[in-house]
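Below is how a single chain appears once it has passed through the pipeline. First comes the sequence as given, then the structure the pipeline wrote out for it. We keep one example in the README because the format questions we get most often are answered faster by looking than by reading.
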Amino acid sequence: MISFILALAVLFVGFLTYSKVVEKVFGPDDRQTPAIEINDGVDCIPMKTWKALLIQLLNIAGTGPIFGALMGACFGPVVFLWIVFGSILGGAVHDYMSGMISARHKGASIAELSGIYLGKPALYIMRVFSVLLLLLCGTVFVNSPAALIATLTPEALGNTFWIVIILIYYILATLLPIDKVIGKLYPVFGVILIIMAVSIAGGMIVLPQYKIPEIQLADLHPDKLPIWPFMFITVACGAISGFHATQSPMMAKCITTEKAGRNVFYGAMIIESVIALVWAAAGVAFYGSTKMLSQAITDLGQSGTVYEISKQMLGNVGGVLAIIGVVVCPITSGDTAFRSARLILAEWTGLEQKKIKNRLIITIPLLLAGAVLTQLDFNVLWRYFSWSNQTLAMIALWVATSYLLKNKEKWAFSLITALPATFMSAVSITYILMAPEGFKLSASISYIAGICFAIVLFMVYCIKSRKGLS
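Resulting structure:
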């Protein structure tokens, strides 16, 4: 319990202190944001800061801070450290920089920003990489909620029926102005996600039968699961996630002042980390050990595990909250994934999006591709998503580093992004080299290769930074 409370406190202090350091390094000013300068009535629409914050939270969260945290808790209390420090020093910095740099470039996507700051080859690679990642993400977030809803409705309303219904909703959310569907529903769903986490945290604290594990150096990972690099890939949304770099540009188009960025981008990531921390603690507290939690995830699946924890801790109310959470959250990630893909394709093709005809030209083929992909087996492909997600985070952090090098007089400022970028570079390469879905190399070879890759990139960064000073 003490470790859990301290972790929450560190996240809160991190927002109050380190977020201001990051903000000062970036240097928000009074220039017009895309919401004011462009204000096209579709994607660039002024929003109040509190609404942009809640929408950003739903954009980046989905079921990530719930499912990822539960799986991460199987590694033991060490996951608390990764969620807390990964978020403050990496994830929230990543989200803030992705959003703010996008705002400085009229709401440009991470693909376009990669081209500006890492060169043309990065632009072409990231366009393809980002669209495929978003298409995969959006499609999977059709299947999982549809399957769950099908189990709760009459047999006549089967999985296919709900896939069609969700895809129709996705068409509306992707096509319509952002304030018509997303702007109205997301703040409500954001509050539900927060209430769900607060309720579970209250249950752990109030009910004596649940004991939250403490962080002990002698027992950080009791089942001896290979923490490096697997835990850093498993717990993505709760600590750092490249998917956020595709989502932040949406709210970069809606904030009315650059000074709102700290609350909207950095703040949303801290809230997501609090949610992840709650569910990581709840998983082990409820089942009593990491082995029992791992077995529950294997037997019940992630959705079933969330439902069992919520129902037992909070009764019928918890069951309702769990169902809403595991249905609504993935859908809210899926629709914004398709919307982000539309915006990237619009940049790529040069089709102006104010006219609904141009939006339809991109949206319909995109959703048709998603409909076809729902018929495929994603069990193997989904494993690649986690790696792709963290690889995108690595790239986004190097983009931010390049931005700071080009826009700041002192290269030391860029260390706030260069250090987490270097760390994620080691994680990404090490994982794909040794993972079952990767090259299946030995741990010793993969560790050395991953570290060497990160060192080389950091040396390139140091050379570039010195050139910038001369």
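Residues 290-349 form the longest helix (60 residues).

See the next section for the split statistics.
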